[in-house]
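stuck on this chain:
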Amino acid sequence: MHGGGWWIAFSALLSGTYNVLIRDLGFDPEFALRVMAEEEVRVVMTIATPTPVDHRPPRGGRRRAHDLSKLLVYGSGGPSCHRP
């Protein structure tokens, strides 16, 4: 686990809340947003990887709206992912 993930996990535990971990291999933005909305996540920590991820909506489709109104903090860490 990345160091930033430890900070978020311990912060949640010490403040009396819980952690939601997505253990799936790969990254599915639609699934992640759905879980965040359903669990009413307040703090999100993501770790960037050099693996390219396509964030465009599916061809002929649109992204769904997710209620992320409970989200207070978004943190990101990990290696730089800029293109050479």
In short: The two ends are 26 Å apart (CA to CA).
